[in-house]
Design brief:
It is built from 13 helices and five strands. Helix 2 crosses helix 3. It is globular and about 80 Å long. By secondary structure, it is α/β, with parallel strands linked by helices. A five-stranded parallel sheet has the order 2-3-1-4-5, with helices on both faces. It starts with a strand and ends with a helix. It binds adenosine-5'-diphosphate. Adenosine-5'-diphosphate (ADP) binds next to helix 2 and helix 3.
């Protein structure tokens, strides 16, 4: 399972990500955590990122895209991952699309945690108090001034991703104001509906009880197609449209595969026929 959690600072992405890690056995890839580790280790990236982060600004796209690309290649990300804090800008989202394509991976879901901004400062204050109580060092950017900047950066640069993924029909929005458990339940419901394939039996039953009804327009165009297809490509065309009409019940991938198979067969038959014709001549 591969998903993105979107939401402003304090929306609860980290909390939910940890739960999803437990539930689905996938890894949480938080660019914030990775960058903080780089800052602590004083690596060249850390040194570059340190001041920008402390001020609540965004580290350059090149840097974060580089770290994510390397991280996706690691063994533990094979089973799936949750991206938390990445992508944070449209260019980062475009780069992620390219990366996933190169690596032959597909994103399953993008989940937006929507929260009322008024509660964010309060949540971050609580986080600071909890970290202090545990004796942990408080993040350099967990203060009112940097939080203001982080929110500004979110609104200007990250929120457009809601439309970016919304347009691709990959986005689901969850009410981040609900209790932690309720948010987890909402996310699980979305993931189960989006990610799990429908059981085969149910899909077959649905196909049997609801036969495809051709609209008059469609039937007409199918007739036209029939006339046009008096070529060796005919079986392929028929298979393609058949595959297309079944795509609602079978997966698109399966339909494509079936069409490909018949195309191959049709090509072979056409080649054979050509051979026969040339021999006769
Ligand atoms: P938040 O809790 O505000 O969501 P994170 O822990 O995800 O913050 O990130 C902390 C800081 O790290 C950000 O304010 C930013 O400076 C930097 N950062 C993290 N991820 C990215 C990213 N994808 N692009 C640019 N900067 C990033």
């Amino acid at each position: 399972m591969r998903l993105i959690l979107l939401g402003p600072p304090g929306a609860g992405k980290g909390t939910q990500a940890q739960r999803l890690v437990q539930k689905y056995g996938i890894v949480q890839l938080s660019t914030g955590d990775m960058l903080r580790a780089a800052v602590a280790a004083e690596t060249p990236i850390g040194l570059k990122a340190k001041d920008v982060m402390a001020n609540g600004g965004l580290v350059s796209d090149d840097i974060v895209i580089g770290i994510i690309s390397d991280r996706l290649d690691q063994e533990d990300a094979r089973n799936g991952f949750i991206l938390d804090g990445f992508p944070r800008t449209v260019p980062q989202a475009e780069a992620l699309d390219r990366l996933l394509k190169e690596k032959g991976l597909r994103l399953d879901s993008v989940i937006e945690l929507r929260v009322n901004e008024a509660v964010l400062l309060q949540r971050v204050e609580t986080r600071i108090a909890e970290m202090q109580a545990r004796g942990e060092a408080v993040r350099a950017d967990d203060n009112a001034q940097a939080l203001g900047k982080r929110l500004e950066a979110y609104r200007a640069q990250t929120e457009p991703l809601v439309h970016y993924y919304g347009d691709k029909r990959a986005l689901a929005t969850v009410d981040g104001m609900a209790s932690i458990d309720e948010v987890t339940a909402q996310i699980s419901r979305i993931l189960e509906a989006q990610v799990q394939p429908k059981p085969k039996k149910a899909a077959n039953a649905a196909r049997k009880t609801a036969p495809a009804v051709k609209s008059p327009a469609k039937a007409k165009s199918a007739g036209k197609k029939g006339k046009k297809a008096a070529t060796a490509k005919r079986p392929a065309l028929r298979a393609k449209s058949k595959a297309k009409s079944r795509a609602g019940t079978r997966t698109a991938a399966k339909a494509k595969k079936a069409a490909k198979k018949v195309t191959k067969k049709a090509k072979k038959t056409a080649a054979k026929r050509r051979n026969r014709l040339t021999k006769r001549r």
